[in-house]
């Protein structure tokens, strides 16, 4: 199955400061910003385009339960995940299962833009958090 880079997720402590950096220094354009209080997500997200690339800045909204807060506590701020767009997430998951690649349980969800996503288990990806996603309802954002 074809895969293409969709975005890079970056864990940050200060969303406002990070947005300013990406806009001022990298000439990025803020295209969306939202908060997700869904259990297991608990983060505020800013989506920026830098050239033709997309960046998601992720700031924890709950320092106890947010996976972004745990990530920052363990590894510090920086690249959290790399997301690849696939044509059909269900088929991609079948392929992963046949290849013995596990997913992170409970990570399958649909974001506010209709993007279906799931995270692969970093124990099977050489330590990198990889997201697979598709956009079954739309092609924008």
From TrEMBL:
One of its GO terms (molecular function) is metal ion binding. GO terms for biological process: L-methylmalonyl-CoA metabolic process. Residues 4-135 form the VOC domain. SUPFAM superfamilies: Glyoxalase/Bleomycin resistance protein/Dihydroxybiphenyl dioxygenase. Gene3D superfamilies: 2,3-Dihydroxybiphenyl 1,2-Dioxygenase, domain 1. PROSITE patterns: VOC. This is VOC family protein. It comes from Peribacillus cavernae. The lineage of its organism: Bacteria, Bacillati, Bacillota, Bacilli, Bacillales.
